[in-house]
Write a structure and sequence with these properties.
about 80% helix, mainly alpha, about 140 residues, 5 helices, de novo design (two linked rop proteins)
Length: about 140
């Protein structure tokens, strides 16, 4: 049976890979957008917001403190939230097939829930302080 640090490492590796796959899907989506002024604008915006969560999560994994970790995870969440808005705009404007967009919207929502839960978990954790036993 794997010990707790190994399980935590595996979950973090899995989430990082999932964020990378999400970024790749965003890249593919942006390439499908029409070569119009609105298509180019949205492609640029969603490329920036949709590809940044993966490297920002990588930065969070190397955080120097709990507050630094929370801050960097908050940036990941912020970028995912922005991506959600762009995906909704693409869907409502019918720029491309909604099937592709709906899958990305679902994945984006799941990733937001995971990151939000991670932030809540780390915020609720209290540092362990060894207190002397009073006799």
């Amino acid at each position: 049976m794997a010990n707790q640090p190994e399980q935590t490492q595996e979950r973090a590796d899995g989430l990082e890979e999932r964020l990378i796959e999400f970024a790749v899907s965003i890249i593919r989506l942006s390439n499908k957008l029409p070569n119009t002024p609105s298509g180019k604008h949205i492609a640029g915006q969603i490329l920036r917001s949709g590809t940044s969560p993966a490297p920002n999560y990588g930065e969070a994994r190397g955080a120097e403190s709990r507050s630094d970790f929370i801050h960097k995870l908050s940036i990941v969440l912020k970028e995912l939230n922005e991506t959600s808005i762009w995906l909704r705009m693409i869907d409502k404007s019918n720029l491309i097939s909604s099937e592709n967009v709906l899958e990305l919207m679902n994945e984006n929502n799941e990733l937001c829930r995971i990151i939000t839960a991670s932030i809540k978990t780390i915020r609720s954790g209290r540092p362990k302080i060894d207190k002397p036993t009073v006799r």
